[in-house]
Amino acid sequence: MKDIAVVILNWNGKNFLEQFLGKVIEYSSNARVVLADNASTDGSVHYVQANFPSVEVIINASNGGFAKGYNDALKKVKADYYVLLNSDIEVTPDWLNPLISMMDDNTIAGCQPKIMSHQQRDLFEHAGASGGYLDRNYFPFCRGRIFDKFEQDNGQYDGKSEIFWATGAALLIRAELFHKAGGFDEAFFAHMEEIDLCWRLKGMGHRFMVNPESVIYHVGGGTLPYLSPRKSYLNFRNSLFMIVKNHPGPLFPKLIHRLFLDGTAGIRFFIRGEWSHLKSVFMAHMAMYGRMSTLLAQRKEIKQQRTNYNSTGLYRGSILFARYFKGISKFSELNQRLFVSK
Q1: Residue 311 near residue 202, CB atoms below 8 Å
Q2: What angle, 0 to 180 degrees and rounded to 10, lies between the N-to-C axes of helices 193-203 and 292-305?
Q3: Nearest CA-CA partner of 76 in 101, 56, 52
Q4: Mean of per-residue pLDDT scores for the chain
Q5: Can you tell me the distance from the alpha carbon of 76 to that of 151, in angstroms, rounded to the nearest whole number?
Q6: Which residues have C-beta within 8 Å of that of residue 118, sequence separation ≥ 6?
Q7: Quick one: which H or E segment has residue 275?
Q8: Do 109 and 245 share a structural domain?
């Protein structure tokens, strides 16, 4: 019997814990439930200790964001599998068993469930939908979600599938591999750190899967709204960090091309008068340049660890071109022959 720990990272999310923690405990009888608290000030810890004494509580010294918060907490959690679960998620009966069964395949490092919107329960949710992919320029998208277009779930993506990245909103991962890869990159703070982790593990030959037999509902934007300039900054910056670290080919031609693409996004923000988002793009690139020496050192280390690179789940086309020039809004409409598969 595997030791499974469902670890919920919390920062001032008492309202979500009141809504969802009870079901997590009820529907996760084959796992321990752990609250990793990022120095909350809203009474979250007291609420959990008073109402759910079976939940293990780990209190981090500070709010180091998603990446450091999990890294600090998971050093104290001994388990075979970690299930990283956002606090704003409603789980369903038997949600864990399909994921655990999938891990019988030792080549699989981790997997995710199908993630639906809590507000519009027939729509896929932004953070992961039915499995994550990267295009040739390393823009992320999902089965069921391309940028801001969310598909209605009609069972079209109910097949189990190998993917490039699994969402950190609900990620089951082998604890040994999480630590072997060094955990999340704490410089990311939040956003895309799970894609970076998956990419590093795929460089070691491991696989990630989605099992839509497991279904959860995600509120989304619980700690940072989707349209926040801060979120734009983190997404642009962390994407650049990720590329410098993990892109297996010549780096600087890729960065120059990405600079052009991000500049195009900046022009779009300028035309729309979204000055704070335009600033976010600029500051993201400045952050990359300021951290370049560290990123290049990480790149060298990752390259040394890379064996049998598993590129399954990469899309050899441009998702930007598909969405904004060809008008494609559904994953199924993409040219499936452009996906790397074994």
Answers
A1: yes
A2: 40
A3: 56
A4: 95
A5: 39
A6: 88, 89, 90, 125, 217, 218, 219, 220
A7: helix 275-290
A8: no
Spatial CB neighbours of 335, under 8 Å, sequence gap ≥ 6? 317
CA distances from 174 to 59, 74, 119, 141, 301 (A): 23, 12, 31, 24, 22
Inside any domain, residue 311: no
Last residue of a domain, one of 164, 185, 218: 218
Rounded to an integer, what distance in angstroms lies between the CA atom of residue 259 and that of residue 161? 32
Question: Could you tell me the two tokens for 218?
Answer: 């995600």
Q: Is residue 224 part of a domain?
A: no
pTM of the complete model = 0.95
- Asked if the structure places residue 41 within a domain, the reply is yes
For residues 69 and 197, membership in a common domain is answered with yes
Residues in the chain: 342
Read off the CATH number of the domain in which 200 is found.
3.90.550.10
Read off the pLDDT of residues 154-201 as tens digits, 9 standing for 90 and up: 999 999 999 999 999 999 999 999 999 999 999 999 899 999 999 999
* Residue closest to 309 by CA, chosen among 203, 208, 209, 207: 203
The pair of structure tokens assigned to 282 is 């600029």
The three state secondary structure string of 81-143 is: EEEEEECCEEECCCCCHHHHHHCCCCCEEEEEEEEEECCCCCEECCCCCCCEEEECCCCEEEC
> Which residues constitute the domain of residue 160?
4-218
Q: For residues 122 and 154, what is the distance between their CA atoms, to the nearest angstrom?
A: 8
